[in-house]
Amino acid sequence: MNSKKSKCVFITGASRGIGAGIARRLAADGLSVAVGYNSNKDTADEIVNEILSASGVAISIPLNVESRDSIKKAVALLQRKFGFVDVLVNNAAIAQEKPFLEITDNDWDHMLGVNLRGPFALIQEVLPQMLDQGYGRIVNISSIGGQWGGINQIHYASAKAGLIGLTRSIAKTFSSNGVTCNAVAPGLVATEMSAAELNSEAGKEKVKNIPCGRLGLVEEVAAAVSYLVGPDGGYVTGQTLNLNGGMYFG
Length: 250
Prior knowledge:
Layout: E1 8-11, H1 17-28, E2 32-37, H2 41-53, E3 57-62, H3 68-82, E4 87-90, H4 105-133, E5 136-141, H5 145-148, H6 154-174, E6 179-186, H7 195-199, H8 201-208, H9 218-229, E7 240-243
Parallel strand pairs: 1-2, 1-4, 2-3, 4-5, 5-6, 6-7
Helix pairs in contact: 1-2, 1-9, 3-4, 4-6
């Protein structure tokens, strides 16, 4: 196991929403945090400054998860700053509401490029060092949509389902080397990305039908990630942890 005082976590899409919540929580847990962002540099820097003001350790790192070159540069920068990537949280994602017959090839390729190929490439880039060290934690943020399918987001649901398959495959292949891989599958969580869906009539109806009677909180998703990458989660691998308020029991 890594003997460094502070483990390093790279969180993609961490400038807002669930990713920002995970960054705050893991920084509070004592990890050195790399806040990955695509275009929201100012917001990412705000998260970093918030962590620094609380005596934590954090940097922001530009990243386009669709670009292997961008991923390589981000990992190299993180290694120069912190020396190692002990924990990877694949959170960066996009969503698009669109009827199935209107989804274009470009829509499909972009959705899978960000939500599935990006995590695949990131894992490939950080895994060799994790294997050399004999320690690593990987968490992929999937979705309830990847478990029960989608209607107006079929390409999104397909990518998130693929992410669960990737999670299980990495866990089967590399857990014996000290690298665990798990997924977290939130249901309806109050974030900027879900706002459009939740403000629609169909979205409001979904909220009414949540057994817990409310939306999930970003902090609850962050707490789940904290457990999976923390000292008590070392025997958990290949699992999909559901945070959906009882919407889905699979």
